[in-house]
């Protein structure tokens, strides 16, 4: 009886401890989460005393939508893609953010001018640009190395399993690029029935050799374990493996898919004030530049770009690893948030049916 | 199993083949659990035996993955291992948090499941219990119903447990249980109950009800009878049931995935993250610790079972 | 009933011919016995009551509530009241008139302003894939302004508003109680005229997934039988001391965390894993032809067989222990070969254990989620994984509930069978 009492007191104690100032940030896990912990969370806690709980999700928009729908919010700040941010904002699920509240650049430029076009939305503030790229295991292709999106689909010349994300957004475009569709026509094509069929037909050619991944850290792991010889994934993760862990990977920038990651705060989140404070802090010039020391993603503020220099090891130039490098932008497919806000549901449905049928 | 003396040569050959087959099946059962133990000491971040490991070079082995269980999630992992370092581990290391959560949730859900389950088992074992079979079937069903169905049901229910009161015109919003310790504890207690019921009723099968009557006729009140007569006899069964319930909670991940909040991340939840993201050998280090833990539990349960059989006079022949 | 075998219950009906027996304090004996009987019943029931209440509240009610979503979805009528009203007043087959278009335009505007248009679009999208954007984009345009005539105005915004399938789907969705999610769960849909038809071949997945789930569960049950039978037999026939020792090898996996066992299989089966390494080392396969044994059905089958094997061995073992070896010896002495003696004498006696084990393994396998999710790739996914996907990814909760209801139905039938054949009170753990 007494032990029970003591333990229940302990439990209540835990409950109280959890009720102290804190903010729950849902992000993408792995090397990316780590970069945010180093660049945002640690300095934030040091400055404000607010504890940051980092929660990993394959794609934070998924738990966000479920939490909104069930009216059961446990996260305060979510790191999601633009299309999801627009869609959820349209549905009235997110707190609107006034750009005037965001800190200006060090030289006094107001935030609204400092952020790159598209980086500020009604309910969302971007932190980084990131690319989805193809990486391959250099030890597997010692003769001729793959160099284009079409090579990814060429199982004859470049044998081995392929790693692809289990989502239509980052697979269909690749199939079309590999099939010769120019980057700027992708969305016209995907908007039509024939275009979608064309993409699935192309994917069918490698379907039996694909290992599907869901979390951003998986393609890196699959490549490192030799489970696949080529995989698409987030460029910062591959960078991390290549530079920090010396993995023998090569990156194909041809047909990279570029997207913005946004911070959003859902309505009715458990700690709204701490959430807003975190969001403002994390998207300030210094913090965005700081993050680029840990992972190869481009900061969303113009004023941060000048501060980006070397990787944390003090010798690797970040420039050539950034998805925003002008050289890589020529063949890049830019994310079209409006298109995905409208078509994500139906293409996901079609994609899942296609995947399940074997 | 000895071979009878009249066995033909063919039967002898078959007999030894059979033993070899059984050996292979035992190997299949146990090898996957054993193989992760040495691999968790791998000095390299791979899941296979490296050259150095195979030649038993000490350099091939290391405790780095066990170390990473402590340091992962710390604010500053480098530095001398003084009081402050350990305080940091205790407060921030993710696996330590997960272990704390698993133990708290496991303890309270076990307590709840054992108390309720033992009472119910006592009732169910009485010959005069009405509707015994259908009630038993309902109480065992959390073990049978697919976890994903249970978890989704709980997901909605715990998001707003009072929704159903709305049907009776009562206030239909009273906060939520999802994302609280209480919610996870209740869920795990539900899942652990069938195990308590099964184990305790099995103990009570051999229980001689006339002992209770004898105690009563000697003037003991029901309370005394329970604590002095019944309880000591069924205690081994109750403890094994409790251990089963604890293990169920300790190993449960689906309900946690659906109803736990960021504060209730348990060891299996942390493993689930790790496995899907980056199965570094740190997962194998946790797995090894869990295997040792299950060996300890299994031993306890086996000892209890034998003890229980001995007290009840069911000693194996 | 349950207590008909109770000796005390039998005494109450015995009434001696010469008159009523009474207790010491003068009450009729039958009455006193019945009363004490009732009190004992009540006491037993009171002991069970707290738990029963607990299970009902934390388990039965939540599942019931969840299943309600499979036939009840008020997302459309709640947010599109006018057009729902119009559907209620006009029977199927009525062409949309001016009133209908006006109602639709009003609802779209109201819903767009209340920011619920996404919910409405999602609901219709379940029935006609690709229409979510029709609602959201029209919603955006309507907010900028819309003038009568509404029919022309809406068709101008998007010609899909003229599609009879959209109207048919809206009509279906306007009723909160619907069987459509069950139809969808068996790959059926309602045609424009309301009749039931199969969906396009491309979208037929659920029946296939149910078949795959049952087939794989059957296969896994068969495998656990093949592997479990010899082991259980060996354990049952060895002397107690040895068999207790070997029993630990069965019980240890049983007590080991499911995630730990799944992880080990991932480690063992991957291309650079231990099994492939051994095969290459033995020269069975070349270094470049390592086998793909994980992230597909093979992975699911191997891992699940291993995980469920103890559930087959334990019931088989407890039945085999009770089989008297002298029957087989008698058969042998009467001239049966060892095979005949096994087939005709021994095996039939193990059937109760086999039935118990097989049903239990099958029931557990049908609902498996964790292991296929981790090692199954896309071809090793079972119906549980589809339910989880609809729960967390597509958020089509009504669909998840319908699939869950079908799965639960089949599990409960098997459970009922198990209770009839084996009895839930005979369930044993180790």
UniProtKB/TrEMBL annotation, chain A:
Domain of life of the native organism: Bacteria
Signal peptide feature range: 1-20
Keywords, sorted A to Z: Signal
Pfam families from the UniProt entry: SBP_bac_8
InterPro entries: SBP
Source organism (scientific name): Paracoccus onubensis
Protein name as annotated: ABC transporter substrate-binding protein
TrEMBL record, chain B:
Record-annotated membrane-spanning stretches: 16-41, 103-124, 136-158, 178-207, 233-259, 279-304
GO cellular component, one term: plasma membrane
Topology relative to the membrane: Multi-pass membrane protein
ABC transmembrane type-1 domain boundaries: 99-301
InterPro entries: MetI-like (IPR000515), MetI-like_sf (IPR035906)
Major site of localization recorded for this protein: membrane
Localization, UniProt: Cell inner membrane; Cell membrane
GO biological process, one term: transmembrane transport
SUPFAM superfamilies: MetI-like
Keywords, sorted A to Z: Cell inner membrane, Cell membrane, Membrane, Transmembrane, Transmembrane helix, Transport
Family of this protein: Belongs to the binding-protein-dependent transport system permease family.
PANTHER family per record: INNER MEMBRANE ABC TRANSPORTER PERMEASE PROTEIN YDCV
Descriptive protein name: ABC transporter permease
Species name: Paracoccus onubensis
Top-level taxonomy: Bacteria, Pseudomonadati, Pseudomonadota, Alphaproteobacteria, Rhodobacterales
Automatic annotation (TrEMBL), chain C:
Keyword Acetylation: no
Membrane topology per record: Multi-pass membrane protein
TM region positions: 44-63, 214-238, 245-268, 301-319, 353-375, 395-418
Alphabetic keyword roster: Cell membrane, Membrane, Transmembrane, Transmembrane helix, Transport
SUPFAM superfamilies: MetI-like (SSF161098)
GO biological process, one term: transmembrane transport
Domain ABC transmembrane type-1: 210-418
Subcellular location: Cell membrane
Main location as per UniProt: membrane
GO cellular component: plasma membrane
Domain of life: Bacteria
Entry similarity comment: Belongs to the binding-protein-dependent transport system permease family. CysTW subfamily.
Name recorded for this polypeptide: ABC transporter permease
Protein's organism: Paracoccus onubensis
């Amino acid at each position: 009886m007494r032990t029970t009492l003591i333990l229940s007191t302990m439990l209540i104690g835990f409950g109280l401890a959890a009720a102290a100032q804190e903010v729950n940030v849902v992000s993408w896990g792995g090397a990316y989460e780590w970069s945010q912990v180093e660049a945002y969370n640690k300095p934030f806690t040091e400055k404000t005393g607010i504890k940051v709980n980092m929660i990993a999700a394959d794609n934070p928009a998924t738990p966000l939508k479920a939490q909104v729908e069930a009216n059961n919010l446990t996260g305060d700040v979510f790191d999601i893609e633009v299309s999801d941010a627009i869609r959820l904002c349209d549905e009235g699920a997110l707190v609107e953010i006034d750009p005037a509240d965001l800190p200006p650049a060090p030289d006094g430029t107001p935030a609204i001018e400092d952020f790159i076009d598209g980086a500020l939305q009604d309910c969302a503030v971007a932190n980084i640009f990131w690319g989805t790229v193809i990486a391959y295991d250099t030890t597997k292709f010692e003769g001729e190395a793959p160099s284009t999106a079409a090579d990814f689909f060429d199982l004859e010349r470049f044998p081995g399993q392929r790693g692809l994300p289990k989502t239509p957004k980052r697979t269909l475009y690749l199939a079309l690029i590999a099939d010769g569709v120019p980057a700027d026509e992708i969305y016209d094509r995907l908007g039509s029935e024939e275009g979608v069929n064309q993409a699935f037909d192309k994917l069918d050619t490698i379907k039996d050799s694909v290992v599907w991944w869901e979390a951003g850290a998986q393609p890196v792991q699959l490549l490192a374990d030799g489970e696949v010889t080529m995989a698409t994934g987030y460029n910062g993760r591959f960078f991390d493996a290549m530079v920090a862990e010396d993995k023998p990977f090569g990156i194909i920038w041809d047909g990279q898919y570029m997207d913005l990651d946004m911070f959003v705060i859902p309505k009715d989140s458990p700690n709204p004030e701490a959430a807003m404070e975190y969001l403002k802090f994390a998207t300030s010039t210094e913090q965005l530049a700081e993050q680029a020391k840990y992972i190869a993603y481009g900061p969303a503020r113009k004023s941060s770009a000048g501060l980006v220099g070397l990787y944390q090891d003090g010798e690797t130039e970040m420039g050539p690893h950034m998805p925003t490098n002008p050289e890589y932008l020529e063949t890049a497919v830019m994310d079209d948030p409006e298109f995905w806000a409208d078509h994500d549901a139906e293409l996901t449905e079609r994609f899942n049916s296609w995947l399940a049928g074997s | 199993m000895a071979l009878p003396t009249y066995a033909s040569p063919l039967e002898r050959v078959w007999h030894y083949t059979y033993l070899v087959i059984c050996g292979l099946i035992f190997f299949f059962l146990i090898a996957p659990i054993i193989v992760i133990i040495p691999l968790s000491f791998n000095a390299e971040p791979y899941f296979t035996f490296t050259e150095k490991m195979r030649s038993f070079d000490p350099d091939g082995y290391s405790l780095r993955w066990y170390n990473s269980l402590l340091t992962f999630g710390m604010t500053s992992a480098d530095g001398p291992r003084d009081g402050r370092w350990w305080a940091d581990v205790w407060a921030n290391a993710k696996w330590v948090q997960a272990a704390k959560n698993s133990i708290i949730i496991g303890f309270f859900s076990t307590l709840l499941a054992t108390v309720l389950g033992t009472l119910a088992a006592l009732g169910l074992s009485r010959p005069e219990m009405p509707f015994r079979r259908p009630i038993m079937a309902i109480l065992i069903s959390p073990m049978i119903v697919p976890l994903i169905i249970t978890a989704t049901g709980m997901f909605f229910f715990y998001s707003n447990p009072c929704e159903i009161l709305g049907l009776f015109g009562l206030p239909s919003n009273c906060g939520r249980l999802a994302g609280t310790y209480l919610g996870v504890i209740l869920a795990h207690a539900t899942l652990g109950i069938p195990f308590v019921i099964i184990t305790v009723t099995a103990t009570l099968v051999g229980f001689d009800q006339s002992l209770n009557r004898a105690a009563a006729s000697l003037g003991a009140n029901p309370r005394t009878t329970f604590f002095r007569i019944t309880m000591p006899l069924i205690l081994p069964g109750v403890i094994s049931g409790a251990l089963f319930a604890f293990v169920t909670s300790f190993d449960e991940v689906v309900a946690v995935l659906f109803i736990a909040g960021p504060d209730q991340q348990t060891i299996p939840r942390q493993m689930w993250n790790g496995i899907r993201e980056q199965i570094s050998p740190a997962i194998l280090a946790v797995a090894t610790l869990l295997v040792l833990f299950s060996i300890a539990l299994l031993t306890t349960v086996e000892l209890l079972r034998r003890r229980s059989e001995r007290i009840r006079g069911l000693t194996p022949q | 009933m349950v207590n008909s075998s109770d000796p005390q219950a039998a005494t109450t009906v015995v009434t001696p011919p010469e008159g009523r027996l009474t207790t010491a304090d003068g009450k009729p004996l039958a009455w006193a016995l019945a009363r004490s009987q009732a009190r004992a019943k009540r006491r037993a029931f009171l002991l069970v009551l707290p738990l029963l209440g607990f299970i009902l509240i934390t388990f039965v009610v939540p599942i019931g509530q969840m299943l309600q979503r499979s036939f009840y979805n008020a997302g459309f009528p709640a947010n599109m009241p006018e057009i729902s009203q119009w559907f209620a007043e006009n029977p199927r087959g009525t062409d949309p008139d001016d009133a209908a278009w006006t109602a639709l335009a009003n609802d779209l505007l109201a819903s767009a302003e209340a920011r619920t248009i996404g919910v409405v679009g999602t609901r219709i999208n379940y029935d006609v894939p690709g229409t979510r954007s029709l609602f959201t984009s029209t919603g955006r345009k309507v907010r900028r302004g819309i003038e009568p005539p509404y029919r022309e105005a809406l068709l101008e915004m998007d010609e899909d508003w003229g599609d009879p399938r959209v109207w048919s789907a809206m009509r279906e969705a306007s009723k909160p109680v619907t069987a459509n999610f069950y139809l969808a769960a068996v790959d059926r849909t309602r045609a424009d005229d309301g009749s039931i038809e199969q969906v396009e071949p491309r979208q037929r997945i659920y029946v296939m997934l149910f078949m795959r789930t049952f087939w794989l569960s059957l296969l896994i049950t068969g495998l656990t039988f093949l592997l479990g039978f010899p082991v259980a037999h060996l354990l049952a026939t060895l002397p107690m001391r040895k068999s207790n020792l070997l029993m630990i090898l069965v019980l240890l996996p049983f007590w080991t965390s499911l995630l730990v066992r799944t992880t080990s299989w991932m480690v063992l089966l991957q291309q650079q894993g231990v099994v492939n390494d051994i095969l290459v080392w033995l020269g069975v396969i070349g270094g470049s032809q390592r086998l793909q044994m994980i992230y597909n059905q093979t992975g699911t089958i191997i891992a699940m067989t291993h995980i469920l094997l103890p559930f087959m061995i334990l019931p088989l073992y407890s039945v085999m222990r009770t089989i008297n070896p002298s029957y087989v010896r008698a058969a042998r002495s009467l001239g049966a070969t060892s095979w005949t003696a096994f087939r005709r004498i021994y095996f039939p006696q193990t059937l109760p254990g086999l039935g118990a084990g097989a049903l239990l393994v099958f029931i557990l396998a049908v609902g498996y989620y964790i292991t296929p999710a981790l090692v199954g790739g896309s071809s090793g996914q079972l119906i549980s994984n589809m339910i989880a996907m609809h729960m967390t990814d597509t958020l089509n909760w009504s669909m998840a509930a319908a699939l869950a209801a079908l799965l639960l139905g089949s599990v409960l039938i098997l459970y009922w069978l198990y209770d009839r054949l084996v009895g839930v009170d005979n369930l044993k753990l180790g």
